[in-house]
Design a protein that fits this description.
Distance between the termini: 23 Å
Helix content: 10-25%
Strand order of the largest sheet: 3-2-5-6
Order of helices and strands: EHHEEEEE
Number of helices: 2
Oligomer: single chain
Strand content: 15-25%
Number of strands: 6
Largest sheet: 4 strands, antiparallel
Length: about 80
């Protein structure tokens, strides 16, 4: 898994993949949402291609998005 987050490693993945794997939208739609300024990471606007790590909080239109897949789960 080249770009994937491993539960133990917590390696960053591209934001569009994170949103797609969370079941929120497709990768292309995630890029469109990012370009429209609707996506934030830790309360800050994002840019296309940005990477996100498991401990960061991702939100679309202010609503936090949590991953569905176990290998993306945050250790809290």
């Amino acid at each position: 898994m080249r770009d994937g987050m491993k539960k133990s490693g917590g390696e960053p993945v591209r934001l569009n993949k994170y949103l797609s794997e969370a079941g929120y939208c497709s990768r292309r739609e995630a890029d469109r949402l990012t370009e429209a300024g609707r996506v934030s990471v830790d309360g800050r606007r994002t840019v296309t291609g940005q990477r996100v790590s498991p401990e960061q909080k991702v939100a679309v239109d202010g609503k936090e998005i949590t991953p569905e897949r176990e290998d993306f789960a945050r250790d809290e």
